Amino acid sequence: MSTFALRITSGDESPYPTGNVTIESLTEKNWLLYAMQNYDNPCCHTTSEFYEDIKRLKYVKKLVTQYENGGELKEKLILNHVIALGNVLGPDALVRILFLKLREHLGIIKPFLVMLNVLPAVVVAIGRDARDYRTDEIVMDMRVVAALRRV
């Protein structure tokens, strides 16, 4: 469970919440707030730099989808994006966000997370139904595993 403190500076009548925002279940509606509260990049000075880093999620999804549709696996590029995201989000947030955004491709993304040693036994509270994923039940794509062994 993560907590994020919001500061309101425009007076007492603000329509925005104050205090702590707790994210129990990671959904499409709150994942960006979760990413913001876990984001740690001392070189980032603007929100546009934050969004640049977050775009890496789209790149990973695009590369994984291309591979799944019969394209070439660009394992080094995927690995580079996943490492960069892990560096600014931390391993726990990285895994939860990847599981939310790449639910249909877990067998492809799991080998990357195993290689980086960031995959927990259970990934908790993902999606509207707050599903818990037991990672040992996710079957890995063996072509991805073989490609990562050559890296």
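^ that was protein a. below is b, sequence first then the tokens
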Amino acid sequence: MFGEPIRQKMIAAGNLSDQAWDLMNEGKYDLALEYADRAIELNSKNANFWSVKANILSYLARHDEALECNDKALSLSKKDGYIWANRAFIYKNMGNYAQALACHANSCKYLPYDSGLWNLRGIMNYDMGNNQDALMCYDRALTIDPNNGVIWKNKANVYEELGKFDEAIQCYKRALKIDPNDAEAKSLLNACLNQQK
């Protein structure tokens, strides 16, 4: 068991890292980076702290530094699917989709039941024009979380791209069944119905 001063230091580091994440999500990247650095100063053996810093650096387009921090995170926790997903995010921001997909393969290997990761992998495949792979990823995500309207809409986008409007319409309807107030799904469904005419 840790002594009280060490325990307090670990709690403080965790709080700083959480605040860094929140600041990053608010778009306050420079301040987020300061908090991430302070968390790492208190506990440099925490892989998640390094991963948070890597994400922040990627948002700042400091990709080489981001990869170095992600390397450090992976050296501390090689089988952490979220750290691999963060690495994919960095490569995506660099425009290196092939490397991003390779990293996403690792993230899904270590977290095979995370629908969000399968959804992100589907988005990357779609962005690269790999529509069949995108559909496979969305199908996998939906077997895990069939009540996720966002994934149904993403799947519909692929079907529209392929000119398979009946399938797209069914996906949009499924999204609306989950959330009848989803204005985006309503709009996309109407646009798809108009294209089908």
